[in-house]
Amino acid sequence: MFTGLVEEMGEVLAIENGEKSIKLKIKCKKVLEGAKLGDSIATNGTCLTATELGSNFFTADCMYETVKRTNLKRLKVGDKVNLEKSITLATPLGGHLVTGDVDCEGKVVSITPEGIAKIYEIEIERKYMKYIVEKGRVTLDGASLTVMKLGDTTFGVSLIPHTQEMITLGKRRVGDYINVETDLIGKYIERFMKFQDEPSEKKEGITMEFLLKNGF
């Protein structure tokens, strides 16, 4: 689990493409403090397992599901990525509970200055909009942000100048793709409401029960 509070921006040092997979080598510093092999490090909001640790880098493998769902497949050497090490029970929860399981990619469709801030409007598949709530939380490239407005397939977040400097969203342009993780609570509520303890029996055609009820 993570908090959605980005600890640092790392830099992509190398990308190794495999068959429906990629291996990333990320330059970093802060997330390496106290890190051990096998630890989880959120990279652009995607929970990755550190498979190698160096003095100023870590490497991680990305399986097909990760490649398919996230913008990690779009990375190039030299790109900046948001990084956060997984939390412990002693970690202050300054953002919100983030799993590191990205739902989908979102597309930046507009960036609008508003006073000292900038409003970023993000477009996603409509089926994920049911998990986006005005004044709720959403995770964009691993950063916990507050939803300020909603559209049919879009939502907006606002960044102050400090946040623009500290996370990759502040460097994004219209047309760029970002990772989106919606709030976990909504997904559980939907599952609880729809789940049936016993599968419903689907009866097809004419049965003995049908014949008896209709006088045959």
Automatic annotation (TrEMBL):
<feature type="repeat" description="Lumazine-binding">
    <location>
        <begin position="1"/>
        <end position="96"/>
    </location>
</feature>
<dbReference type="InterPro" id="IPR001783">
    <property type="entry name" value="Lumazine-bd"/>
</dbReference>
<keyword id="KW-0808">Transferase</keyword>
<feature type="domain" description="Lumazine-binding">
    <location>
        <begin position="97"/>
        <end position="193"/>
    </location>
</feature>
<keyword id="KW-0677">Repeat</keyword>
<dbReference type="InterPro" id="IPR026017">
    <property type="entry name" value="Lumazine-bd_dom"/>
</dbReference>
<comment type="pathway">
    <text>Cofactor biosynthesis; riboflavin biosynthesis; riboflavin from 2-hydroxy-3-oxobutyl phosphate and 5-amino-6-(D-ribitylamino)uracil: step 2/2.</text>
</comment>
<feature type="domain" description="Lumazine-binding">
    <location>
        <begin position="1"/>
        <end position="96"/>
    </location>
</feature>
<comment type="function">
    <text>Catalyzes the dismutation of two molecules of 6,7-dimethyl-8-ribityllumazine, resulting in the formation of riboflavin and 5-amino-6-(D-ribitylamino)uracil.</text>
</comment>
<dbReference type="GO" id="GO:0004746">
    <property type="term" value="F:riboflavin synthase activity"/>
</dbReference>
<keyword id="KW-0686">Riboflavin biosynthesis</keyword>
<protein>
    <recommendedName>
        <fullName>Riboflavin synthase</fullName>
        <ecNumber>2.5.1.9</ecNumber>
    </recommendedName>
</protein>
<dbReference type="Pfam" id="PF00677">
    <property type="entry name" value="Lum_binding"/>
</dbReference>
<comment type="subunit">
    <text>Homotrimer.</text>
</comment>
<dbReference type="InterPro" id="IPR017938">
    <property type="entry name" value="Riboflavin_synthase-like_b-brl"/>
</dbReference>
<feature type="repeat" description="Lumazine-binding">
    <location>
        <begin position="97"/>
        <end position="193"/>
    </location>
</feature>
<dbReference type="InterPro" id="IPR023366">
    <property type="entry name" value="ATP_synth_asu-like_sf"/>
</dbReference>
<dbReference type="GO" id="GO:0009231">
    <property type="term" value="P:riboflavin biosynthetic process"/>
</dbReference>
